[in-house]
């Protein structure tokens, strides 16, 4: 497996693959990989002839006071994991490679970025769309695999690719959970034992809403109230809501497709989770 740090070098590699008629998948990550990330790599390996994993902790998607400096970095272990999963290359650029001096162009995110995370973290998605656009320009892949745990990010990337005519197919991977239901996240390692027990309320709240919906409850206010009650033990609830799964716009009466999404702080750790409930 190759490890490449140069944008020009990785672009040349991908065009050589494409020139031989091969399909190429890219899996963008910020490293600190867990089994959820590995599942995305495996999905790409199954789908494409060659898979490239990017590892880059993108500073422009972190606001002041967020965890950029302490975000976990486990590069050697990450490389071993993606190699075992079948990737042929890791692209791990420096900050100056991606944002050279004088770089002042950013990609404004689409409308689907405005609610939820767009309110809680208003600078976040501009950083996401910018770095993803730059990666897609450097890695002209046929497919890109994104996880569904960052559900709004997935919808933002899908909209950007459509709006800006990127010639790449976005593939969604599923949410991988721990045996007790906690969605896998690089930030789970920040949780104390007590915090981790409290964090289980996120997946429990989603399951509860899904069960109520399957039982015939269609009043969004009642469904959201039930979720919020389940989350009473978290340190700070940012949102627990049910929205249109495509537009992320609110609804008053449950209709398909509906997505339940949660963002909460448990201890000092910010966690997100989601579930299709109808």
UniProtKB/TrEMBL annotation:
Residues that hold beta-alanine according to the record: 61
Keyword S-adenosyl-L-methionine attached: no
Compartment(s) where it occurs, according to its Swiss-Prot or TrEMBL record: Cytoplasm
GO molecular function, one term: pantoate-beta-alanine ligase activity
CDD domains per the UniProt record, alphabetical: PanC
Keyword Oxidoreductase assigned: no
Superkingdom per UniProt: Bacteria
Documented EC number(s): 6.3.2.1
Residue positions binding ATP: 30-37, 147-150, 176, 184-187
Active site: 37
Amino-acid positions noted as binding (R)-pantoate in the UniProt annotation, renumbered to this chain: 61, 153
First-level EC class: ligase
Any Gene Ontology biological process: pantothenate biosynthetic process
Pathway(s) of this molecule: Cofactor biosynthesis; (R)-pantothenate biosynthesis; (R)-pantothenate from (R)-pantoate and beta-alanine: step 1/1
Catalytic reaction annotation: (R)-pantoate + beta-alanine + ATP = (R)-pantothenate + AMP + diphosphate + H(+)
Any single GO CC term annotated in Swiss-Prot or TrEMBL for this entry: cytosol
InterPro entries associated with the record: Cyt_trans-like, Pantoate_ligase, Pantoate_ligase_C, Rossmann-like_a/b/a_fold
Pfam families: Pantoate_ligase
Function comment: Catalyzes the condensation of pantoate with beta-alanine in an ATP-dependent reaction via a pantoyl-adenylate intermediate.
Assembly with partners or alone: Homodimer.
Further comment found in the protein's record: The reaction proceeds by a bi uni uni bi ping pong mechanism.
Protein's name according to its UniProt entry: Pantothenate synthetase
């Amino acid at each position: 497996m190759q490890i490449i740090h140069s944008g020009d070098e990785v672009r040349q590699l991908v065009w050589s693959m494409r020139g031989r008629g091969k399909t190429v998948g890219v899996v963008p990550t910020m490293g600190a990989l867990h089994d959820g990330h590995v599942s995305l790599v495996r999905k790409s390996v199954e789908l494409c002839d060659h898979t490239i994993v990017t590892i880059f902790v993108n500073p422009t998607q972190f606001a002041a006071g967020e965890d950029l400096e302490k975000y976990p970095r486990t590069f050697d272990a990450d490389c071993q994991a993606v190699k075992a999963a079948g990737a042929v290359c890791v692209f791990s650029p420096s900050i100056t490679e991606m944002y050279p001096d004088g770089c002042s162009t950013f990609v404004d995110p689409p409308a689907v970025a405005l609610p939820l995370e767009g309110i809680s973290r208003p600078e976040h998605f501009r950083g996401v769309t910018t770095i993803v656009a730059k990666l897609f320009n450097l890695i002209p892949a046929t497919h890109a695999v994104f996880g569904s745990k960052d559900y709004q990010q997935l919808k933002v990337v899908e909209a950007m690719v459509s709006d800006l005519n990127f010639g790449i197919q976005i593939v969604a991977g599923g949410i991988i959970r721990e045996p007790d239901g906690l969605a896998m996240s690089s930030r789970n390692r920040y949780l104390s034992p007590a915090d981790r027990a409290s964090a289980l309320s996120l997946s429990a709240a989603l399951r509860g809403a899904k069960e109520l919906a399957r039982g015939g409850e269609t009043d969004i206010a009642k469904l959201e109230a039930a979720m919020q009650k389940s989350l009473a033990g978290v340190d700070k609830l940012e949102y627990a809501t049910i929205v249109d799964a495509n537009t992320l716009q609110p609804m008053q009466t449950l209709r398909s497709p509906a997505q339940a999404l949660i963002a909460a702080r448990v201890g000092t750790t910010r966690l997100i989770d989601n579930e299709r409930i109808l």
